[in-house]
Amino acid sequence: MNLQSGTYYWPTTFPDAPSYPALTEDLVCDVLIIGGGSSAAQCAYYLSRASLRVAVIEKGQIGSGSTSTNTALIQYSGEKMFTSLIHTFGEEYIARHLMLLKEAINELEKAAQATDIDYEFRRRDTLYFASCQEDIAPLKAEYDFLKQHGCDLDFLSQRDIESNYPFSREAAIYSYNDGELNPFKFTHALLDDAAKKGVRIYEKTEMNGHHYDQQRDQVIISTKTGHSIQARHVIFAAGYEGMEIKKEKKASFVSTYTVTTKPVEDLSSWYNRTLIWETARPYLFMRTTADNRIIVGGLDENTAYPEDRDSKLIHKKDQLLKEFTNMFPDIETEPDYYVAAFYGGTVDGLPIIGIYDDYPHCYFLFAFGDNGTVYSQVLAKIIAEEIIRGNSPDLPLYLQNRPLIPQK
To answer: Which DSSP string do the residues of 72-133 spell out, in sequence order?
Structure first.
């Protein structure tokens, strides 16, 4: 699957990342995780805390897929407002979803303190501004819901925004204690931690077949090198490539673009180095990095054809930097890395844990959406609870056939 093209910043931040051998023998385990990106690492992190035989296989190198293009804005708010999700799922349902997202951010911070590799997790505030007059009322309703459910945030007026930023918008939600991280280092940090706890990790080990052995009540995975892996449970945490194994009808794809600048000397006009995004769809977003670069992204295109996506990359790179300069005219930027990539979402706005009758003892982790890292943390913990304890009360919230409010 042609997921992305361009030049990738994150892998350059960790040139001496750990490497792992290819699988050279048959294997028996309790849980097999297929994938070597952040979702797989999050699953391995949680499962490594239990007395289970866990293995991870990745067809290429760890972190070489969509993890390398993940912009890793760590937020609980997403593209579809919670007030909109309520119309589909109900308030109690979405209040629980919100709580799990907030807990996931805390879990990301906790993992940063527990692992040996620094993945540059930093708490950051978020500015989420109204792109036009018509978006102010829905933004205020979203603020009221979040405030009611214990979120730490303010509703800013135009004067408030102008007092802190070199640009003007009519209104915004200012959220405290969101975050950012380096997704490539994050993936390696969690897998390194898991490996030290006994999880077996194999790179350059590609699956080329799978079936359920009813007699043994086991899933059998075969690899391209002719080996077999026998597992009680399999987690398909291969990101968008998981759709090549099991097509999920609730998923949808567009193309998105990002540019990462060279390091910037002076970021003093960027108040608190906040994460910034907007209500417009498609939206623009931006963040800073640990080495003082700026990542600007968005301007999505409704195309799922790689050639069409890639043909727009240079134009989108220039457009993204122009949009940034309009907001921060005193910050001089020079592009260093730029990427065109597929971006997956779901039609109803929630990520998915796929459990299908034709894949016994298997879980598909589809953490699709703009909060992919946070979603993955939620879903990985739920799947681990389901495997370790035999039950997770939050699993029904994210199943592909989750309950919806009957529409009139």
So the answer is: -EE-S--SS-HHHHHHHH-HHHHHHHHHHHHHHHHHHHHHHHHSSS----EEEEEEEE-SSG
Cα(9)–Cα(13) distance, rounded to whole angstroms? 7
**CA-angle at 293, arms to 291 and 294, nearest 5°:** 145
pLDDT score for 408: 42
103: amino acid identity, one letter: E
**H or E element, residue 375:** helix 372-389
Burial (CB < 10 A; 0-12, 13-18, 19+), residue 326, is exposed
Distance of alpha carbon 70 from alpha carbon 7, whole angstroms: 13
Dist CA 53 CA 387 (whole Å): 12
User: How far is Cα 74 from Cα 77, in angstroms, rounded to an integer?
Assistant: 9
pLDDT in tens, 106-154: 999 999 999 999 999 999 999 999 999 999 999 999 999 999 999 999 9
366: DSSP letter? E
d(CA 94, CA 99): 9
Question: Among residues 300, 302, 345, which one has the least CA distance to residue 320?
Answer: 300
